[in-house]
Amino acid sequence: MSQTTTSPKIALVLGATGAVGKAVVKDLLVNEHYTKVVAAGRRHVQLDDSIPQDKLVQETIDFENLDESRGAFKDVDDVYCCLGTTRKDAGSAEAFRKIDQEYVIESAKMIAQENPATEGVKSKVHFLYCSSVGANANSYFLYPQSKGQTEERLQQIGFSKVSIFQPGGLVVEEARPRFRPAESFIGLIDRVSTALRLNMTIPVGGAARAMRKAATDTPAFIQPKTHQESGSQVIYYSNRDMLVMNQQ
Length: 248
Fold this sequence. Notes:
Radius of gyration: 17 Å
CATH class: Alpha Beta
Shape: globular
Number of strands: 10
């Protein structure tokens, strides 16, 4: 059995307009764990009328001028970070690193400053980061290297807890504004993975559900990797862990 957290809390979703971020926002709004859900990104997330929006607050963030957004980052309990991009969408490796890593780290630092702990670690916040399978700070390839470096840097900031999710292929549930050929390939992998029970993919809604469960429940039947770093409890969730959490 899982133990559900019932005390009123406030959630912040960074990168709320991306596929995973939007799925997280929708999941949090239809569940009762939070009294307020702050969706923060470069633009507002578009939701249809089937999603209750009475506790949704939308904040437009200029990541080049984060000081202007301090108020949006204040008085939050759980931060779901789904901020990221691809090299193609960013336009260059330098622009990719700025969005995928620097925006994440600088936002995290400000969130820690605005939500200090009473004792022990620097911040009371539980920071939940959607990374990727294969993340490795020493990788030769840009994408897994950036994710791995971001994971390492988040652990040094001083949050009470850092949960890192490493999904495999993410299966989108809504059409993208811009076609991504790789996602068609992931769809093929998903069909093969599901048929052979290889646990290689996960729908974005499933990734969102696993992240919310890690913040609001005590997941049973999984043993994620855990360690302490700079006072933070750091927990890694694999794609298989996330799939199991969806079955609970």
